[in-house]
Structure formats: C-alpha cells, structure tokens
Amino acid sequence: MGQHVKAGELEIWTEQVGEGPDVLLVGGLGDTVESWQFQLDGLADRYRITAFDNRGAGRTAMPEGQPTVEAMADDAAAVLRSLGVSSAHVAGFSGGSIIAQELALRHPYAVRSLVLQSTWSAMDDFMKTMIRAFHWQAELAPSERDFLEGFFIWVYTARAHNDGTVDRFIEDAMAFPHKQSTEDFLAFADACARNVTAGRLDGIQVPVLVLAGGADRMSRPELGKAVADEIPGARFEVMEEEAHQPFQEIPDPWNVRVDEFWQEAERLRSGIPSS
C-alpha cells in the first residue's frame, strides 16, 4: 500500500516495495506510480523500489504557480529524505528522465546511477511543435478516449496498437480514479519544454545508461545520444523495434537490462571489478 509523504509543502503519494539496494522510479507526463507496475512487480525481489506521483499527477496535488522541472527534481530528493533513503539508483522516462537529470545535477549525493529512457537535453523545434499539438488535442478532443487514442500514437508501437495492448492501457487509464486535469497535464508538458540541461550534463558524475527506442517518434534516438555524449562515461543503447515506453511494452527484457546496469553500478560503488 502507498502513502503520502511530506516533501516540503507537498504531500507526495509514494509506494515502496521490495528489499535490497534502493531504486527511485520517476514517471513522465501525467504518469503515476501505476505506470511502473511491471517494475514494481518484476524487480522487487532484488531492490527496494520507490515510485511516486509527480506534483499535479495522480494523488499528488499541483501547488499554485507555474511548475518547473527543477522543483520536481527537488520533490524527488525530498521523497528520498522523507523515506530515510540516502541515495538510490534513479530511473526516469520521458519527462521523468528530465527530472532525473536535474536530480543528479541538483542533488548529486542522492543519486547512485541514472537510467534515462526516452530522454533529451533540450527540445528541438519538432518536439516543441508536438507540445503545442498536445494543447489543442487535450482541449478539443471529443472525449477522454479520443484524446488517449491520439496521444498514445506517440507513445506506443504500432505492434501494441494492433495487438490490443494499447486498448488495455486506455481502459486502465479511463478507470483510474485519480485523473490528472487538462490544466495540470499541459503545465507539466510546458515545464518540460522550457527545461534545458544541455551544456550542464558534464556535471553528472555517476554511471549513466541512456536507452532510446528506435521507433520513438517523440524523443528520437539522436536526442538521447546527445545526452549520452555530454555525460562522461555514459552508455547509449537503442532498442531498435521499440517506441517511447518499452518498460511497459517489453518489461521483461527492459528489467533484465537495467538490473544488469544496476548490479554493475553496485559493484563499482563497492570497488569490485566487473567480471
């Protein structure tokens, strides 16, 4: 069962499962703890995993004022402090990967390693146009289902649309009792569009794995590669047949890859050579 934890002035909804080295999972645009269910279920036998609802998503309220990625990174650090976690392996996807970048820059001692899925360091004109399109889609879609069907074109592979996976995700989203408001969804999107970490990423000094989907039309592989190129020692890998959220579409291979990376990062922390 989850709980609200105090993070500054916010009460942030948080779930923690498992035993072992600490892992913090940071969700993207509008996503909640539930977006990480395959990781909460699949990795809790090896790690103590914490996931939380970002401000303005799920069971965490949006405070007054314009949200920023920096503030959301501070929220993530506050969640760890509230739970007595001194440092964690951090994984974030999409907007959550931007929060994870800022977390590593603003609170370096809280981060053991980074997994950045579907990431970027500065939105290019293509992505900024996409964000503007989200505005009119969210405001003018005839129904919630219509909006989700259109939005998920950007998120999941054609395979997932054609085999019924996306239909199941849509049913789950429509049944979820803690829906994000249109205003909060767009405020989060705009915060991600404003944020720029390019030119600062060489300040990240922990092991980093950047994962991109070869079929991701939102945060294309070249954007992730630019992130990896700027971070000292970062690894960059493309999952050729995948889109924006492979941790949901192919959770078992994704979990295996990040588990390997976290185990290696733990060995490095302990001074044990890689085999």
TrEMBL record:
Residues 23-245 form the AB hydrolase-1 domain. InterPro entries: AB_hydrolase, AB_hydrolase_1, AB_hydrolase_fold. Transmembrane segments: none annotated. GO terms for molecular function: catalytic activity. Pfam families: Abhydrolase_1 (PF00561). This is Pimeloyl-ACP methyl ester carboxylesterase. It comes from Crystallibacter crystallopoietes.
